[in-house]
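User: Hello, can you help with two protein structures?

Assistant: Certainly.
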Amino acid sequence: MPLDERKKRILEAIIEEYNKTAEPVGSSKIASDYNLGFSSATIRNDMAALEEMGYLDKPHTSAGRVPSSKGYRFYVDTIMKEYQLTPREKALIDDNLKEDVLRFDELIKEASSILSRITNYASLVAGPQNDACSVEEIKLVKLGQDRLMIVLLADNGIIKESVVRYNGEISEENIQIFNSLLNYKFKGMNFKEVYDNINSNIQDELYNINNTVVPLVMELNHMLTEGDSEIYLDGTRNMLELPELKKETTLKNFLNIIETQDAIKELVKNGYNGNINVYIGQETAFEDLKDFTIITYKQVINDKEIGTIGVIGPKRMDYKKVIPVIKYIGDKVQEKIKQGGEEDGGKPGEQ
């Protein structure tokens, strides 16, 4: 049954009050502090109805009520009016991201640190899934008698580079042959496909040209898998100050979330490209997340995934402020990557 306007306003007031205090909310508090124009008895009756409909929960030890996951979902999707960041808040973010950061991983980690400081929740970043990255170009550059730089450029603009040492001698001519062969075989193939095929399809061919090539193939394999499904967390200490985590079971659940990262990885993987994704409490299949919300922003440039930023916080989260902050920081990261691409001739940022 759809909620009428009165119930929506009462639900919104309960959520705002609970977000501030982390204490169950009673009808008298809403009647006295929120100037809704409804009597305490009317509010009490509607709170009972909202509980029956699943939008509120009633803790056993209190006469007040708290928002449920369903209540928060309705609030985020229907009631909430997003906060507009002030020029000062935008300037703070801009100033912290204005330094010239050439490496993509450094840029996105800096964004995560800013996000954690502004929201006071734990922040997360993840690189793109390797099956979302395709090889644009592979470059081999000889640095010395026994060192070779591998530069791996993905079609989403992310660059990975590494230096490999080898025993023996590889001529410039053989390096050019390796380079041409790698690009001929793998250009346009996604990272996972390259990883699955490089040993069976190309190692023997390279080895026949020069048997010192084994370290090169091993390092290229490492580059192809590096970063996939890795989650970088910042500000987890912020969470330990929250009243929710004074409860032993909630604290254990949070520690399990950040230690195993299973839930985070699954939600990051499944998020929609280019959208803010909000996962609230019991909506997910993960029992550890029942008291938490994860918000992610999977970023895209030219229809290509470049990574994900987000926050982990309590269900009692300031959604109307947190969501626009994530969006603004994420958009600034994309802007810097695009700027880097323009300055570097289409090669934005390194990883």
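That covers the first. Now for the second protein you mentioned:
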Amino acid sequence: MNRQMAVGQGEHLNETKASWGVILLGHGSQRGASPRECSCAWQQPAQDEGNNGSGSGSVADLPGWPVWCRRCPNTPQGLGEVAQRLQDRLGVERANVMLSCLEFIEPFPDEAVRLLSQQGMNRVVMLPYLLGHGKHATVEMDEMLEEVRAQSPQVELLLADGLGADPRLAELIVDRINSMGEAAPVPQDGVPVGILLVKAGTRTQYDDCLWLAELGRMVESRMGEGYAVDVAQSHYGDPTMEFAAARLVDERGVKSIICAPYIFFPGLILTRNVLGTLDQLREVYPAVSMVVAPPLGVDDRLIDVAADRVREVWGED
């Protein structure tokens, strides 16, 4: 297992005595991502990847790369930047932010809590930096909290809400679509453009995706007349990408689809599940053009939502 040290461990703790510890809890990833694993690469012609394709060169050096590419960081880099921005937002005098992950990236939650306690912070907010409400955010979260509380009974451990369906996240999705410029289709002759909003998959028994449907309605409202939005999961559960695409084409009459990956960073889920399924959908609907927006990446709106979730635990507006 390729475990990577997370920023915020031991020596990175704030020297100023903060009153709260805050654990930014991500899922984690055991691998980085090359430019070829991003949605920006999906429609590029096959190239001799060389050094650039392996991730050691600049995305800008790849021939034909879209100008709107976000140059998204991989998961370890991106989460580290999020933790630093959240620290800046909350202030060193109020909180000490530490990055922890459920898998692959250390420190894991139990060790993160111990490190904060050793620094004298025995009031800790656990903030799930997760986009869905699946097994990681429900069953595994409850199990993890029970174990950590048993191991560190001196710590008052409080759980913040996840990111959820927030209007700021809908605005972020719209911005990612708008950033594509001329690469994104526009409504013509009364025919709407479909937007397929796709989250990472989780089994239906753990997430009914009602929050995702609400987010989809927010996006459609902000996109305005001429756009039809449907939502899906990349794999495992309902609604499937195949089901959502059929609704866009058969029920709402779209002739083009923009896939908006509701995913933080490029990687295997984006490449294998989202883009792989889109390749299959292209064969099913050869007359429907399909393009892909960039993933969410690191954005101040995400940081603002995360900071608000912490402040809600603190009892602040």
